[in-house]
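PT: before anyone asks, these are the final sequences, not the draft ones from last week. 776 residues across everything. Please model them as a single complex and drop the result in this thread when it's through.
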Amino acid sequence: MNVLAILIPVSLGLGLLGLLSFWWTLRERQYDDPEGDRHRILTDEYDDHPKD
Amino acid sequence: MAYAEQPGPAACPGCLMAPQIARTARKARAEGGEEVQLSLPGIHCASCISGVERGLMDLSGVRDVRVNLTRKRATVRVDADVETAQLVSHLARLGFEAQPLDSATLSSGESDRAARELLMRLGVAGFAMMNVMLLSVAVWSGAADATRDLFHWISAAIAIPTVAFAGQPFFRSGLGALRGGRLNMDVPISLAILLAVGMSVYETANHGDHAYFDAALSLTFFLLAGRYLDQRMRGVARSAAAELAALEVPVALRIGEAGPEGVRVAEVAVGDLLILRPGARVPVDGVVTDGASEIDRAFLTGETDPVAVAPGAALRAGEVNLTGVLTLRAEAVGEDTVLHALADLVSVAEEAKSRYSTLADRAARLYAPAVHLLALAGFVVWLGIAGDVRVALQVAVALLIITCPCALGLAVPAVSTVASGLLFRRGLLVKHGTALERLAEVDCVVFDKTGTLTLGDPVLAAPEALPREAMAAAVALAQGSDHPRSRAIAAAAQPLDLPDIRLTEVTEVPGHGVEGFWEGRRVRLGRAGWVGAQGSGTMIAIEGAPPVALEFRDRLRPGAKALLSALDLPVMLLSGDAEGPVRALARDLGIDDWQAEMLPEDKARVLERLSAEGRKVLMVGDGLNDVGALAMAHVSIAPASALEAARVAADVVLVSPDLGRVADALRVGRVARRRILENFAVAGLYNAIAIPVAFAGLATPLGAAIAMSTSSIVVSLNALRTRI
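LR: through. Structure below.
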């Protein structure tokens, strides 16, 4: 059962990773315009001078 | 259910700080400048987004453009010297319809923040639920002794902070209700969550084998999901309603010391002199001091015939100036205008509407005390049977968790979200939270005429029956004028092959009509008295020939005929217009029950009488004379072209030009009500099975977890079946 000592932290860590990435998407305001983002990903015009 | 947004500290530092940081960063990049919001009703695709963004970036002075397709809106950051009108006309050249929005009216920041907070809590609850469930699977499949205790302790370490963070909306609302001496749905919810966690910690410390951490967390998760849906639906409706208000940037032309200047209507003071151009809406109540014109009062009274005005005539806010330039002295501004006097009426009716108890309220009123009594009964009975406080408490907590209104919390918001989303896509904006349920109960429909069943712009009746010479002269005169009736004459002439008549010295006489000369004879088109004839209405007179009367009809709103033939409810027509046009329209549409020449109070009185008879009336109207009736009705719909006062009073705004959508609204309302009742039945059935099991002391954490998730998922899936 010693494997639990590794597995439990690993599973918790993976879960936390998911939570942190969710927090990041929220912070980046990725839920403000779901409709627009759905279309933006399909655009075939390329931005040669991205702002960031 | 009391889903009030609780003002309080932000859910997380990220919710509060992140948008601010992002905003500051964007601001720094754009280095100041002004922010302009544009409404883009026509955009729908990827190339629309890039078209608008690239098109605007090409303009000099535009620093940053961001299109939001969900809200059909663009946020443009421009230099201070760039006019909004420039942006709009540039977009119009590119083929995009755009309207400037008043950013002062548009402040959705607060509800955005509330939604983000709820989403964060939902995310945390979801994460914790999944992890604790994984640990619980090990316990359910037989982990024992030290391993089970370890798993329980880890679950506790995850669950306690999560409940403390994610459960706050329930705790706050429940506490608020208790302080007010009431019971709402959040009281049993909070009690169940807290007791479940508390008892589980106690059990864990005593090496017990039943811990309800997973149940407490999934309860939190599903209920937060319901609340998030509710919040988002309200947010969408509110932002769309705010957008409608922001579309009207109210400006008046005031005669200042340095000539006419555009000022916001809110800044106009009593005694100010205002200029009113043809086509403009009267901004404040006042008296004409100079000029002559005709005034369209359709919005106020429903009359389709324009009224002539001269110096000394009183004008009321909301009327439209048709032909000549008028100077107006403001007599009453802001809250004193007739328009605002109606606001009192609306707020009284609002209060009545807020007392309307929804299905969810009625369910909660039965449910909340029942749950508490049941848990107490379980505790007392088991204390009697087993004589052990710990066992009795276990049963009581199991009962609280099992009966917790998880499915009930999702039953209404899930259906309302799907139904109002459906209506939104069909061009109907549900403004009021309980409007859908009230729509389902409608058993009688009352329509206004002008602006609702008709568009309010005239069409010439039977142009082919008129003498050709008179008609040709009328067309020649009408071409130079922008009066709605002139435009109707010009439009009616197109299919007729009329002789070309050359007129000289065509002049428009504001308030009277248009005159010109044809082969030395004077030709006049205008009011009957002015052209030299008896009677009223519009006439064309050629010198030496008898005057010919021109009859006008109102153009039907698209979908009006289809709606009237599709409605299976009794229909009434109440109009402020004269009897003739109302009778003609009622005959056209097959309405038997109609009344003409009604004053605004008459309309409200009819509605009052109907509701006293127990009828649930749907009122569809757009004018100021309808505001009282709209507020008085069980549920009301106003077209988006209505005056703001009417849109405020109405529960649903019809954004689409098609009146046939009203039938869709009624149908969706009924389907939504049926789904809600079905969902309650599902929740009731689940309780009928689960309560005896829990009461017998046979409920296990595994059973609770399965039962709770299943009922929540069944309820959500059933909500998705809401289709027309």
